[in-house]
Amino acid sequence: MCVGIPMQVVEAGFGYALCDHNGALHRIDTALVGEVAAGEWLMTFLGAARERMDEASARQALAATDALAALMRGEEVDLDAAFADLLAREPSLPDHLLHESQP
User: Fold this and answer.
1) 92 vs 81: CA distance, rounded Å
2) Which of 44, 56, 63, 67 would suit a FRET pair with 86, their CA atoms being 20 to 30 Å apart?
3) If residue 25 lies in a helix (H) or strand (E), which one and from where to where?
C-alpha cells in the first residue's frame, strides 16, 4: 500500500522544496503544485507534492499515519483520536464518481 505523507516546507527552490518529516529532510518535486514557501504544508507521494494542505489537515493526516505505523509495530492505538475525522460521517464517493454509481 502506498500512503501520502504530509510534510512541511523548510526551504523552497525552483521546482522543488526541502521538506521535513519527523526530523528528516526530503527533496520534494513541486511541479504539480507550483511555487511554495517555507512553512507551507504539502501532501507528498513518491517524492512529489500532490497538493497544498492547511496545518490542521496536515496534523490530522499525520496522526492517522502515525497510528497506522504504531499498529504495524503491534502497539495499542486510540483509533477514535487518530481517525476522528472519519467517525462522524458515512463513507462517500467523490463527486465525479457519484453519477456512475446511481441507476
Assistant:
1) 21
2) 44
3) strand 24-29
How far is Cα of residue 61 from the mean position of the Cα atoms in its chain?
5
Q: Any bridge partners for residue 17, and if so which?
A: 12, 28
Helical residues (DSSP H) of 1-103, grouped into ranges = 55-72, 79-82, 84-87, 95-101
Neighbours of 57 (CB within 10 A): 15
**The domain at 5-86 falls in which architecture?**
Roll (2.30)
pTM: predicted TM-score of the whole model, two decimal places: 0.77
CA distance 27 to 17: 6
Mean pLDDT of successive 10-residue segments in the chain (103 residues)? Answer: 87 96 96 96 96 94 90 90 80 76 55
CA 97 to chain centre: 22
